[in-house]
Amino acid sequence: MQYSCRYLEISTPNSLLQFNKIPPAAAFLTLSYMVCTIVLFVLRRFEYSKLVSSGSDVAFDSVYSPIMQMVPSEILNHPYSIVLSNLVDVNVWKISINTINLVVGGSFIERDWNSSAEILKFTLLIGSVTNVIVVAVTLLSSLLIPGVKIDVPLDGNYTVLIGFPIVYKQLFPETTIIRLKNLGFLSKNFRFKLLPIFIMSTLTVGQLVFFHHFAQLLSIWITFFSCWIYLRFFQVLTSTQNSDYMVGDASDTFQLIYLFPDITKPLLRPIFDWIYNICSNKLRIIRPFESGDIDKSNSVAEQRGAKKIVNPVEERRKQLALQMLQERMV
């Protein structure tokens, strides 16, 4: 799909919009999300009516259901909310975005991964593991930092809003979504690779400026790192052409540093490199990538349109090796 006018051009890959027949997992997630969100609304409305009839002066927005919403202080009484919170929302804007995301993006991702089980795992299992981490960090933070609220619900459904854009960045690295033109220095191309950091910046500013919800801010960033870590190091995808499979995405363009703006890279690169060395070499939480893994992933990334990243040090070594080989031949 493409729309163009004098100052604006919007492009969407045709493959992203082929959702005439929604795949089974995407259909299941969308239906479950809509049903659970409606059930949550009914439960909240019922509780609100009870409170109002008893004379309580309470706003509807402050009413929650610990059965389906993730409330840190109630988590031991309702542990299943860890899973159910992946499938509910209370904000109209987020319900709209996530529904479109599940129907359009979920359908494309499921077809590209060629696995219904994988998208269910990414959305529900990784989402639930992330929610456990969020609750644990929130409860610990409440002991150390005054003002951290543990008696209000946390949004446990950021995997679709944050995790799917990371997948889009992985699958459409250089594809332009919006192009501003004929606007002088404001003329820019907004590509899929910028989508994750744009969403993270928007959500972060919203929490810092308007909502002041520290635990929710933790949830946002923990979800971001959890989704990337799974896709980078642990996801197993089998090729549709043969029985070959890949574990994670070792491509240079999918390094964590390339999900952040260029201006922050000099500061973040040594920090990320240090954490990677600790986790891979000392703690052995993750498996270090071998050269074969990197080459295979780079080949897949280039087929998706990713630009090849040239490492100056590595390129210099290759040039010296080639020079030495030529000298020996002479």
From TrEMBL:
Coiled-coil ranges from the UniProt annotation: none
UniProt keyword annotations, A-Z: Membrane, Transmembrane, Transmembrane helix
Name listed for the protein in its UniProt record: Peptidase S54 rhomboid domain-containing protein
Subcellular location: Membrane
Organism in which the protein naturally occurs: Torulaspora globosa
A Pfam family recorded for this sequence: DUF1751
Major localisation: membrane
Stored InterPro entries: TMEM115/Pdh1/Rbl19
